[in-house]
Every structure is written in structure tokens, then in C-alpha cells.
Amino acid sequence: MPRRPSPAAPKNDNSRHGRRLQYETLEDRLALTVEISEFLAGNDSGLEDAAGHRHDWIELTNTGASPQNISGWSLTDDQLNLTKWQIPSTPETTSLAPGESLLVFASGASGEVGVVNGELHASFQLSMEPGYLGLVRADGTTVEDAYDLYPQQVADVSYGLGVGTSATTTETLITAGSSATGDGSPAKFRRFTGPNASVDDHWTEIDYVASSGDGWTNATSGLGYGYGSPWQDSTVSLGGEIAGYVRMPFTVDNAAQLTSLNLELRVDNGYIVYLNGREVQRERLPTMFKIGNDWLDANNGQGGLNSRENLSDSTITGSPAVIDLTAWLDTIEEGENVLAIYAANHTSDQGDYLVHAELTAGRAVGPVADSFMVTPTPGLENGAGYLGVIEDTLFSHDRGFYDSPFLLEITTAEPGTTIRYTTDGTRPTLSNGSTYSAGSPILVNPATLSYADAGVVTIRAAAFKEGYFPTNVDTQSYIFLDDVLDQDGAGLPDYSDWGYAGPDWDIDQSIVSSVGPENLKDDLKSIPTMSLVMDWEEMFGNGSNEGIYTEDSRWRNKSDERQASLEYFTADGAEEFQIDSVVEIQGHSSTNRWRSDKLSLQVKFKQPYDTKLESDTLFGNAVNAGESPANDFDTLILDAQYNYTFAVNNTSVQGPYATYVHDQVVADLSNLAGVPAAHGRWVHLYINGVYWGIYNAHERPSDSFAEEYFGGDKDDYLVVKGFEGRDLLHGGTQDKYLQDDGGLASQEAYQELIDQVDDNLASLGQYQEVAALLDIDDFVDYIIIHYYAGNYDWGELNWLASYNSVDPEGRWRFHSWDQEHAFPNDQNAPAGDGRNQDYDHTSQVANDFGEHEFGPTGIHHKLMASEEYRLRFSDRVEELMRNDGLLTPANAQAVWQARVDEISGAINGEAARWGDNRSPDKDGDDWATNAQYTSDHFFFANGPYQSRTDTVIGIFNNTFSPGSDDDEVGKTDWLVNLDAPDFNQFGGEVSGPFGLTMSNPNGGGTIYYTLDGSDPRTPGGGVSPTATIYTGAAVSLAETTQVRARVRDTAQSGTSNDWSAEVAKTFTISQSGLRIVELMYNPAAAGDLEYIELLNTGDYPVDLSGVQITDFSSGGYTFAAQMLEPGERIVVAQDVAAFKSHYPGVANVAATAFSGSLSNSGETVTLRDANNNVLQSFTYSDVAPWPTSPDGGGYSLEYIGPFDADAADPTQVAGDPYDNAANWRASLLEGGSPGTDGSASTLPGDFDSNGAVEQADYDVWRSTYGSTSDLRADGNNDGRVDAADYSIWRDNLGAVAAPIIAAVSVPAPAPQPAAEQPTASAADSAFAEESNETKLAVAFASATEHAESASNASRSAIDQSLAAAARPDNPLLLYSLRRSGGMDGDLDESEPLTGEQLAARDEAYNTLEGKPLESWRPPAV
Question: In what residue span(s) does the LTD domain sit (predicted)?
Fold first, then answer.
């Protein structure tokens, strides 16, 4: 993305002259001095202002020859208001130099107007709809430049003077020169001489300085040795090494004008190409290789540095590798760039070496014209311009399940486009695919369009038009389950051989028969579906060339990346997405062909395709999701699972005992304990229309994963993983950990942790140094959960750890990974597996410590030398494994059961696809038996075994000596001696004030407790000054409180043994009385002014901590700790600053904003308590009978119904009042009523509740006169709108309440002719000249003191008179009515108005009818 310019960033000097010549071709702008060169009306993901906000923006450029003072000029989006926003005086605006540009944010009236943080902010926003934008000189009338009616705009695409793409030229960025003459483009070369983080982690970046001190030498493109003319332009030496680094810098001016980018490359032999630090191509190198790996790869798949194929010299020189980098154009920076190449020889051929690169680019050079620019360039020279951006193609049928063929129409809004489509998985282009003909829909029929009649039709489409920017590729998968059940592999395209016994494509018809076709179809819809669509040959080969699935060279086991579309959808269509991505084979042991015929995949969202997957529901709707799963992802693992599956090659101990869910359940336990691990969701996967079974789609703990869960920037995170260890080529050993993200710096940082752990941890100071690097609580929970799960294949391997290297509070955190051997039990003991439910992993670690020294198990064993750590470990065991903790039997089994239930139907699809892949055949019943056996025998006591919980607590308490390593790693008693105190309730929700009692289960000691969240014990073993001795009396808890308590017995030895583990429990005052009572879902005012208001309807204060607002379209909100008193309200705003600016009178506003926005057309909104229980759920609408004015009309949606619902199931209860439109109203006050109950104003006479008594209130009174139901104007609250209420308005006319909404400056009305502005004296004279009958009628109509006691007849007359006479535009009548309030004399209560009186009244009414009231106000009487 372009870097943010300064408010007056200059255009590129080298192109100013050319640009002025281009302006001269635009006759309508020939005389312009300052022009609107570019604007952006929909800034969704681009430039941010200094405060981090994204606004529309406008770029002004001085095209003249002299500086211009544009202060006092105006920008406007209203042709009728040319001075809408005046440009203020700043150094930049008073002297805008020739060729310079000025950036103005069109931020609207949201508090950012004028000069803010040194940047200019206009008072209006730009419309995405066709509109006006003008630049007006200081005289307020001369339009310097304008777009009279700019076209419909596109988000993140700018509009303005773009360089036409109708003509292009090719320019060379890097040349390899001619034969050995040194005239190739400059380059730098460095041979790889061993790991060096300062070089290896940065040499591909633009700003890296390649100095001779670090071993760099000067060269030119075409560098090498042993090749000579015409390929070798300069000579370098590897000096006996295997590989080298090459940097080729190049400069690009006006980068946004580039339209294509191509690289021709000849490298001996393997290479990786980087463009500005990003890998764009890799050939003949192991997929697991990372820069800095210092070993050779001899086909063992561990990522060695050497090329794994040895091409002949003639092959290398014969034809270059032609790499189209056009999709990477947005990587190109304005100015300096660098092409970096890692080039490695094969071990058997070191006699020559070559890196020969030529980089060329296409540049737009067509006429400058008003056009769309897909690369906005604020502050830079404008880019390539397109006549339009074609809207996405629209499919008449959405992806999903279908029972019969149908006709599919594909359209796009732009006329004259060519729509191209494919059905074979390839990307449609102008040269690939078929042309869709309007009026000739595609017959979507699996019998003719799907591979092998497999039952899935995939359509990929894109639209093209000369001069227009094409659409992206849309992909839709249509699944016909009747045909899927007949999948047999016949009729497939050519493919390469795969599988341990040959390719396996079939659906097992015996499973179809035993389950039943209809039941199996339901099972295939019971979990979400994912569909990977790509070039068939790139996945499965063609018989001659391997695809990534069929590749069996072990060094390529993880495969190269290939482009693919990924779709996701549920059967009901409630959840879906489609995203372009790259895919590769994923795994470790499972990738060794063919241990399993069913391989795992990694899908990456990265350049040059979509760079982020955004989905709130993928894991938000997953079982066991825990708190706040991520909704942004740059990768997903489609995990086939390997161990304990139907297709595993271990057909004795594992295959017959398949359960599938082990790995994800351990991750679930970790997430539920608050230790972030991979969230997962089971899906049915189709690959190019072929059903491939069930897969666990889950996250991968990486730098971006850490960014999502811990904050900060992914580039600041270092990630390492468990590794087998290797001897290094240049000396030394790579210990059993390896970089995963962050380069060699991650290994160095992790080694620092290992070094600290190796010191004397019995010292409190040394332990605290470790705690400064390692998140102790997070780590302890991770350790406890994994010892509980019992995976023997963990500790040395199968772990990941992340660390924020720039945050002073950054700590190493470990993440669950690959726990397929968890939950051992004796079901498969007869088959030879001796690891049962009493498995003790601690003995394995201690007795083979060299395998674990550098992993989490080794760190834990060493940390046990610290009494502080031992006590903290005991604390977390108390929390997790006792008193209804997560790892108590029923709770842990419930986590297991949730995953079992998730796939209980889907497993039949898996059995049909893979159950007969290995002998013996397996089916869903076998799986169900296995899952139930684990449930019964691992979690609970059964037969000779205790529950797993009791077993592990016993393991933690046992002492043994492992032998020679006893002094260092011998397991001691890991739990302290004293038992923790007992509570009469171990936390949770309580109603109102709660009396907490505690008891000491030990023979001696004293209970100490705190109520402020602090530990009763200080580090080192002292008593905290905040701790209180428990005396036996109940402790009253009147608000949400964390209670932490320990027993202290100084008779025990040791600073940890004299304290018990703590009981730390939070008591939450019931949040059940919370309700959402107001939504502003489509505000009329500019800016992000949506809000949601909550009310505490209960009798006690409520702690909002953990309360969630969920389910609405693109966001959500979770409250931090904050008390809400009974009857108190709190507003959650879309933009806190904008809300406070607009509603300054609202005091209680949540400190942070909700994410996303509320739907303008209605949607479901759900309120959940801190335990994820539903408190309220409703679906609002903008269609009657729901109030319609809240949809953009300026009003909010307010709840006015009863505060009740079925507490057990508020979303389903019949008659839930929150789903009843009759219980909601449009706010009485325009702008809503945040912070109040929305009832009529407390200001007397303010009948429209806008905070002022004015003419509009009279309209309300008159329109509701006589009503007993609409009582907005019932000023005296007597249940009827009548004349008495008029007097209340009259007596308070002009009064103003303290505003909730900020005052808005409104221009004064235009002056009117004097004859049309009656004054008070004129009205008084006119009144004096009226007949007595008229005076009588007026007096009678307004004499409210008499109306109160009038007979029915006379009251009726009063009502008729007043109702008929009342008109807001009759100042004489209003004045007369006001005067009549002081008139004397009794009126005949029983005498109705005569006809003469009525006529006289009408005469008075007509005297000044139509005269403007705004300029006249009656005098005080």
C-alpha cells in the first residue's frame, strides 16, 4: 500500500512536465491552475489519518507554473452551496508550489473538521452514488474545477485524472546485460557461510544495507561462474559453498502506472525469488527450507539448503523460467525496490553457478482522462486509469445443495462485458474457458458437467471489457448428493498415480446401503461444507507431471503452493464465504507417501490473491469455541488427521480404534482454560468436485495467530516449533527447536529463554528473570492440560511457541499442536499398545531428558526447582482439577462429547469415502464404539482405573528418581502439602448480596483472603498487606468480586509448603436483568453514529465484565469490567469519539466501540452473559409492522414492552416480547434517546421531546388534539390532549432544555419583505379592530381555566373552536390567544358558539394566514 503522504506531499519532479503536457490535451481544463486530481469516496482499507481513522479524501494539485494561495477557497459536494467548506490558512494552503499536491480528508461533521493533527478535514463526506465535487475560488462563485456528475464509485478505488491503459510501453527494470561485459544491472552477491540472523533475516528487504563487512561483493545481473558468454555478465565465487544470496535493486517512478510485471530467470540450480521481501516463486528447493537452515537435504524432508534437482546447463540456458509477477504489482514501492534471489547448487554439481535475471514492466501511456484508478495514489503521481471497474458477476443460483439440474444465469451490471467461465477448475481468462451468452443460461447438470459424474458442478466466472478493470474470479460449487453417493472415479481426467495401493476415488456402496441413501445425504449436510476448486493437473497431475497431491518425492512432501478457490457454506445457507487462496500439502509424518492416502492441506490467504479471510461465524459458531475466537485469518489447516483414523497405515493399533477428535479436543481444553490454541470446525471437503471426506478446518498458531489473540503486529512476533535437531553444515548443532516465523531471531530469542531456565531457579530473583520471558500462568495451564491429555508424542515435538519481541510485556506462550495420541486407554491394549488411561508422561520425560530438554516438558521440569513455580503449579491444579474445574471428569468429558456429537452423523460420509481404504473395513458404528469407550474409560473411573483427573493428581504428587539425571530433572512432589480452603460455593453467579463462608480442611493454619484480586501471599512467602484473616463469619459480597484465599501454616517447612494452593473464584452478581433497549441502526446524521443501549432492569448492581452483544451482521462487543447500577443505562457506540461529539449530554458510554455495524434492513441481535448464556435475543426489521423511520429517518428503535422472557431459552420461547414489533417504537426524539428512557421530555410544552418548546410542538398538540391514546402532547398528564395542554405549550414557548445532541450551526433564514413580517404591535392593532364576537371566540377557545369546569356541551364547543382555529402560521391568532389568557369576564358554560361567532373566528383565522411565524414571537403579557 502507498505510504501516507504529508498534507502537501510533492508529486514526482521527474514527471511534472510530462503531466502538464497531458493536461493540455484536456480542453475543458486547459486554463486550470489548481485541479481536483484524485478523490476516493469509499475508503474501506486504505489511507488512515494521523488518528488512525479512514475517511474519504480529495487530492488537489497545482498544475501551474507558480505557487498558489488556496486558503479561503472552498470544497463542496453541493452545487447549490459552493462555499460548503472553506479551506483554512496553513503554510501548505497559502503557498501550494507548482506540481505539489494537497490532501484533504472528507471526514464529515464528526468532530474532525478543519485542521486536525496537522491535516485538513472537510465538513462533508463524499457520496458513493453519482454526485458533485467542486473546487471554488475565494470569491465563492468561481468554480476552479468540478466533477459535475461523477459516476458511481467503488470502494478503495479512486477517481480522477488517470493515465489511460489504451496504450502501453515496456520498460526494463533489471537487465542481464550482454556477454561478460559487466553491463548488466547492478547486483550484490554473498555466499552463504552459515547462519547469521542479522543477514539471513533481512537481506531480502528494501532497506537492508549489503556491506562488504557482511561479505557482500559487487556484481551485475548475469552473475556466476562456469557459464561464460552469453549468459555470464559478471563473475562471483561460491568458495566451495552450496548457495548464495543475490540482491538486484531497481527504481520505479510512478509505480501506479505499471500494468504488468514479468521476470525471465535462469538459475543454476534451485532458487527462491523475493520481491521487496516477499517470496513470489520457489523451484527445486525443499518446501520446508527456511533461510538460515544449515544442513543438506538428502530426501529426508527436513528442509536442507541445497537444490534437490540438478538441471543440465543446456536446460538452464535453453529457455528461461518466465514468471508473471503482474499479480504482485501492489508490492512495488514508489522509488527503491529490490529483487532478491536465493540460489543453490545441487550437491553433486558445484562446478558452475548462474543467476541471470531480466525484469520488465508494462506502463500505461494513454491519454490522461477522468477514470478509475485501482491503485489510489494520494500524494503521488496518479496511476493507470480505467474507464470503469466491472462489478462482480452475479449467479442466479448460490452455492449449495441441489436435487435436480437447473439453468444458471451469470450477469454483471456493466453493459457490453464479456463473461468467461470454466467448469474444469481453471481460472477463466480471455484465452481460457467459454464465453457466456446472455439469454443462453448454462444447464447445471452433474451428468454432463461434473468430473466422473461425481455429483458436483463447479463454475468459475469473470467479466472483461476493453479499457475496464475486470472482475475477480467468482466460484460456485453445486452439489447433487444423489450423484455424490455414486462417486466411483470413472471418467476422470488424466491423473498421476497415487495411493499405497493405487488411487482410491470410490464411495463405498455398502455404506450407502447400510446407512441408507436419504440418511447419508442428511449426514453429508450435518456439518459445513468446504469446496476446493483449482486446476486439476496442479492437484492430481496428468500422468506425466505430478500434482501436489500425487508428488511422492519426500523433499517435496509438503508440496509447492498452487492457486485455488475455497468455498465454505452450511446446508441452510446461513454461513458462507468464497475466497481465492493458495494451497499446499501439510503435515509431518503423514506427508510421507503413502502412510495415509488421505492427506492434509494448508490453505493460505496471501498475495497475489486474497490476503485475509474474514469470518465471524467459522469459529464463532464452533463447539467449545471459548472466548472470542478470531475472525481474521491468513491461513487455515484442512486437517485430515493421521493417527486413529480409517485411512492410517497402522492397521492394528490405530485404524480399528479410530476416533478422529483427539487433537482438537486438547486444543479445545486449552482454549477453554484461556490458553489460546487452534480453534477448529469439522467440514465435509470436496476437491474439484470429488468428495474427499471429513476434515478439521482449524487455525495454525503463527505470527498472525498471535497478532489476533495478543494484539500488536504480526511482524513483531517470533514463533518456534519442536524439531528433531540437526548437525549444522558449518559447525555446531541445531537443537530441538526451529524457526517457524521471524527467522533466526526467533531461535536466538528462544535460546535466551532456555539459558535463563538453565540457571539456579531456586533463587527467587532468577525465577523472576524467567517469568519476565515466559508467561508463567499460561505455561502452567498448558503443561497441566497436556499431562492430563497424555500424549506420549509431545514434549520433544508437537509444540509451537510465540513471543512478541518488541513489547516490553511480551512473554513466550506455548500452543497446543498435533495431539493425535492424546486420551490413551486400554481399548487397543490387546493390539499391543501399552499406554493406558493411567499413562504417566512425567517418567518418560525424566528418563529421556535429552529428548525434552529444549521443549516445554524440559522447561517445566527445571522450573520445579523454584518453590514459587511449584506453588503456582499447585494453584492451577486446584483451579483446573478440583471444585468443578475444567479438568474434572464430567467437565472434561463434556468437551470430548461436544466434538463427538459434532461429527456423529458426518462420520458416515467419512466411512463411505475412506472406511474401506485399509483392511479391515470400518464404519460409523465402529467409530461410535471407539468414541464411547474413550468417554467411559479415560475420563471416568472404570474397572481398575481411577478417573483421569485423580490419576494425574496422583502422578503430580508422586516422587521418583529417574537415575543419573536425578539432580537436574528428577521429579519431586509437584503439589504443596496443605489443602486449599473450602468455600460454601466455588464462585459463579449469585443473586444479590451473597454470604461467603470458608473452612480450613487442614489440621492447622489460618485462612487468609483478599477481595481485590490480589494474592494473599507475597512472592517469597509473606502475608500480603491486603490480605484479611478469615474469622468464621460470612463475607458479604454485594457486587461482582474475585475472592482469593489460601491456608497458611508456618509449622510446615519451606516457603511454598507453608501455604496451600489458592482458591481463586469470581462471584458474579446475576446479569440476568440486563436488556438491550435501544438501537440506532441507520442514523441519518453523517459519521459512524450507530449505537446500542443497555439497561439494568434488575434490583442489584451488575458487573458487565464478559457480557457480550453478538450475532449482528459484521461485529460484536464484549464488555470490560464495569458496574451498572439498577436502572442505569450504558451506550455502546460504533465510534466512541463521534458519538460523544454528537451526544455530549450522554454520560455513560462504553470506553470502546463495537466492531462492524448493524444491518440497515434488520437482523438478529443477541445479548449473552459472561458465561455465554443468552439473556435476550431478537430479530428486528425495517419493514412494517416494525417502525420504519429508524431506517435512515433520524430516529432510533426503542423497546417499550415488558422486561420478561423465558430465562431458559429466550430465543425460542413463544411470545418472546423482544421479537414482537408492537413492543418497539421509533424514538420520540429525532436522533434517539441515548442515556434516557425515551419518554416525553420533562420540559413543559416540549411535546416532540427535542429539548426546545417551539412551533413543532404546536403541530404535535394540534395533530393529537382530543386523543386519549397518543398522549405526546398531554402536558398535564390527565390522559387527554386538550386546551389545557395548549396553555402549557403557550406559557413555555421558547424554553430550551440542556441538549443531549450537540448544537448544529444552521444558517439564518433569508430575509423576507417587511410587508410579510407582522410585528407584535401590528398584530395587536389588528386584534383591537376585530369584532367583539371574534374576541369572544378566541377568548372562549383559550380560556383553559373555564374549560376545566365546563359542561360537556360547552367543552365540546371549546374543543371544536380551538381545533378548527389552530394554525401555526397565523401569528395574529397565536398573539390573540396569548392575550386572551389575561382577559376578564365569565363565559356561559352551556352556550355553544353561534354561527356568527364561528364566522368571526374564521375571519380572525384568515387575517394573517400564510404569514411567516419564524420572524415574530408574541410579547409577554
Answer: 28-229, 1063-1182
- Measured CA to CA, the distance from residue 369 to residue 367 in angstroms comes to 6
- Give dist(CA 262, CA 267) in Å, integer: 16
CATH number reported for the structural domain that contains residue 116 in this entry:
2.60.40.1260
Output the pLDDT for position 1321: 37
**Cβ atoms 907, 694 nearer than 8 A:** yes
Backbone angles phi, psi at 318, to 5 degrees: -65, -50
SS3 content of the chain, % helix, strand, coil (to 5): 25, 25, 50
Would strands 223-225 and 234-235 be described as parallel, antiparallel, or unpaired?
parallel
Q: Which of 858, 861, 822 is nearest to 750 (CA)?
A: 858
777-815 b/e (C-beta count within 10 Å ≥ 16 → b): bbbbbbbbbbbbbbbeebbbbbbbbbbbeeeeebbbbbb
Shared-domain flag, residues 641 and 573: yes
Q: What is the DSSP letter of 979?
A: P
Are 500 and 602 contained in the same domain? yes
Q: Which amino acid is at 1261?
A: W
Specify whether 340 is located in the same domain as 205.
yes
**Grid-cell match 476446493, residue found:** 532
With beta carbons less than 8 A apart as the criterion, state whether 1179 and 1117 touch. Answer: no
Last residue of a domain, one of 313, 333, 364: 364
CA angle 142, 144, 147 (to 5 degrees): 115
Helix (H, G, I), strand (E, B) or coil at 867: helix
1041-1048 and 1006-1010 beta bridge pairing: antiparallel
Cα–Cα dist 1268/1279, whole Å: 6
Structural domain including 1395 reads 1257-1407
Structural contact between residues 250 and 185, judged by C-beta atoms closer than 8 angstroms: yes
Q: Each residue of 764-783: pLDDT tens digit? A: 999 999 999 999 999 999 99
Half-sphere exposure for 1373 (CA within 13 Å, toward CB):
28
Higher pLDDT, 1330 or 1257: 1257
CA-to-CA distance for 1212 and 1225, rounded, in angstroms? 22
Residue 220 β-bridge partners: 186
> Are 1273 and 1376 contained in the same domain?
yes
Helices (H) and strands (E) in the chain, counts: 31, 68
d(CA 1264, CA 864): 79
Indicate the pairing of strand 1041-1048 with strand 982-983: unpaired
Is residue 1040 located within the same domain as residue 1076?
no
pLDDT of residue 177: 79
Cα–Cα dist 1/11, whole Å: 17
What pTM was estimated for this model as a whole?
A: 0.81
Q: Is the model's pLDDT at 470 over the cut of 70?
A: yes
Task: Tell me if 567 sits within 8 A of 577, measured CB to CB.
Answer: yes
Residue 1377 has pLDDT above 80, yes or no: no
Per residue in 27-81, pLDDT tens?
444 456 899 999 999 998 899 999 888 899 999 999 999 999 999 999 999 999 9
Q: Which amino acid is at 1324?
A: D
* Domain co-membership, 648 together with 749: no
- Average pLDDT of span 724-749: 95
